[in-house]
Amino acid sequence: MKNEAPYILEWVAHHLVIGFDHIVVLTNDCTDTTNAILKRLDVLGYVTFRPNKPGQGGVHRTAIRRALRLDVVRKAEWLYVTDADEFLNIHCGDHSVDALIAASGGDAVDVIMVPWRIFSFNKRVILRDSLVTQQFTDAEPTYEDGGAGRRFVKSLFRNKDVYHRVGLHNPHVRAEHATALTWALPGGLQASQLQGGNHAQPPFGDQFAQINHYAVRSAQAYLLKRYRGRANHESHVLDTGYWDRWNRGGCEDRTIQRYAALTQGLLDVFKADPVLARMHRKGFRWHKAKLVELLQDAAYATLYGKIAASDPALVVHKDRAIRESRALLSQDQDQTDDAPRA
């Protein structure tokens, strides 16, 4: 994470509510109250927090390597790598992580590749101190309704000694173990690693689970995202091109609000702690003050005017095309990830 103070408490509460036993968070170069919030959550036992100094391979690879060395991670049965703008949303059983595993093969499955569903800015311009999962309900269309024909995935996977590294989207298996794992989409439709790569193609299994990906949030939040920069692409300046690709909408999706009562209950517990409550308020004020500063810059002001007046994209043609060639999918797996990062 970097500079995610307004969003941390909701994100942690959500993932604990859906059934993860523990959350490990690494941060880099934060200038808001992100680190202070996470330190307090660590003291209270909700997360394990470690600052991350980038090393060989970039911010994300360094963070994952360091996380994998922690005892709490080494002892885990299942692992899942996610970002602060991603919320796992499970549609099957009791809507828990355990229900997703059971529906996707149970003891017989090793890797479950869950597809993204991108959410637009919902025509929301102002950065508000309210829940992301309630503010943003305008999602990209399903494939059947004309939406993307390939989608990025994030993987829930068994913690086995067969990986040569763990990536942002899936684990990478050592050659000698290439056929040792069972890969599946949500619901149990089997998929090979080659078939998946960083993406899935229809059928996605999204009737069983999806990852709500709030890649842009509000127009003002996007300006702060531009200021912060991208962890894996430090030289890439976020502009209207990035916004136009990831501001996808056209279909109302409120399914994640099934968790609202439980998430709010845990948020109330968090905010009853005076340190967490104060650091959350201070972090939100930092973001609002930074916005005032950024809007004095002509480049930010121009970008703000353009994106605030924009309409969500119904379809992004680059991602509508179905990748049917296994050769192309294999190449995808080795290419540098061009996905938006939190």
UniProtKB/TrEMBL annotation:
Annotated Pfam families: Glyco_tranf_2_4
Cellular location(s): Membrane
Topology of the protein relative to the lipid bilayer: Single-pass membrane protein
Membrane-traversing stretches: none
Keywords, ordered alphabetically: Membrane, Transferase, Transmembrane, Transmembrane helix
InterPro entries: Nucleotide-diphossugar_trans (IPR029044)
GO CC terms in record: cytoplasm; membrane
GO terms of molecular function: glycosyltransferase activity
Protein name per the record: Glycosyl transferase family 2
Source species: Yoonia vestfoldensis
Taxonomic lineage: Bacteria, Pseudomonadati, Pseudomonadota, Alphaproteobacteria, Rhodobacterales
